[in-house]
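Hi support team,

I submitted a single chain yesterday and got back a structure, but I'm not sure I'm reading the token output correctly. Could someone confirm the output below corresponds to the sequence I sent? I've pasted both exactly as they appear in my results page.

Thanks,
R.
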Amino acid sequence: MKKIVFAILFLIIIGGVFVSLSINKSLNEIEEVTLENIDFSKLKDGVYEGSYETALISVAVEVTVEDKKIKKIDILEHKEGKGKPAEKIINLIIKEQSLDVDNISGATYSSKVIKKAIERALLRE
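Hi R., thanks for writing in. Yes, this is the structure output for that exact sequence:
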């Protein structure tokens, strides 16, 4: 019986190590996200979709461009932990007409993933 308990505890510990390594890898990936400098004045009118996904957070967006400006950003999907407040970043991006806006405090990782999804949408146009 002791061997079975020991084996179960060992498997739980090993599983926890693998989960921890996976989470750390995903967080490092998000921390290293870089954004291209997009000239918003050269955007073409249209509706564009983009997405970005990590092991922890994934976002899909739809970006509407009119008169060389972002008029609307819809978040089609946002799988996050506690990153729901990051969705406010779309208002800053529309206001500033730039991806170079501050991340939402307390939702930094989701903020970065949302910006990367928007960038991908705009680069497809």
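A quick pointer for reading it: The radius of gyration is 19 Å. Let us know if anything else looks off.

Best,
Support desk
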